[in-house]
User: Fold this.
Amino acid sequence: MRKLASTILLASGLAIAGAMSVQAGTLVINANTSDPGPKQAFEELVERFEAANPDVDVELNIFDHEGFKTTVRNFLTSQQPDIITWFAGNRMKTFVDRDLLEDVSDVWQDNGLDTTFASSKSALTIDGKQYGVPYSYYQWGVYYRQDIFDDLGLSVPATWDEFMAVNATLKENGVTPITIGTKFLWTAAGWFDYLNVRINGLDFHLDVAAGNVPYTDDRVRAVFAKWQELLDSGYFIENHASYSWQEAQAFMFQGDAAMYLIGNFFVPFFPEDLADSISFFPFPVIDPSVAIYEDAPTDTVHIPKGAQNKEDARKFLAFIAQADNQAEINKLLGTLPPNSEAPIGDDRFLQAGFELLNSAAGTAQFYDRDTDPEMAKIGMQGFQEFMVKPDRLDAILERLEKARQRIYG
Assistant:
């Protein structure tokens, strides 16, 4: 049996050509799992798949996570691999609408996935058909330095007023309350999501994402008004647009900042000597009359419509859906398995996430997964610009509204 071929590639034409130079009959997987935990998880998964299917050779090509978001369009229109990693929700729907992804409803039916993936089925379903299989999902929330909180006598804030009081105390004691890196834009979208669902609720938030609400609407303005309370008070780190989300971690790890609104994929990056000093709390309540909704992005695998080896690709989708494989993948990712029969383990962050999402009144995927990709890019550019220059809000919202009208007609 040929050993697993795993290569990290840049998202370039040369890399794509190299990645596709494989013999017929090989199962080609292009993955966006370049960070250490995801890379290891997929390499080990492929090794187990090859062991279970000795007649299948796998070519695993691992691409830079951010570059993959652009390059995936090339994978789906020319020299298609047999499997791609991607995202549920509108990100998937965009490719389904263009007839670029394979209908895999048969994989769901043949393996009883309707039952084991009941909670995430809707995010993979378009017009009654399934177009992929989820392998991971995770909670978002506020990760914080509990040791700093303890030193300053701070309690976990449950409401916005309590949150603002915590921020004020931290700043008074020389600690920047919140770290964030908006170099890649999407981290700012987490703030838009949570402020919107806490103020206006999930249905309104999804209406905004679907292009049904003007960005100049007073309810959208209320989101930015609440956001501006944090900006005007100087509660975010300076120069955040210069940092990736990984680079922004350093401020928290060094004790210069105390909190980070981020997904649970953050956990594997904790330094060993700080692991017991970092804890988690849900985003605070802003309006108690609004039900509690959460972001729960779902990562997925799909078969491109033009794949050459669809038979083995379907075997791989069924394999990654198995409870034991879901448990192993998510253990390394620090995330939750969508398969309801997969064990979660005793990790305190996963337990907190499981509790949080099970008690939520509903979930969103994430701004850049729930809205049109072009609108998402323009919207997130606007969010980042607002965080740097909040006085430009009117111009930003007018620009977003013009984009909405053009994109959604």
Notes: The radius of gyration is 21 Å.
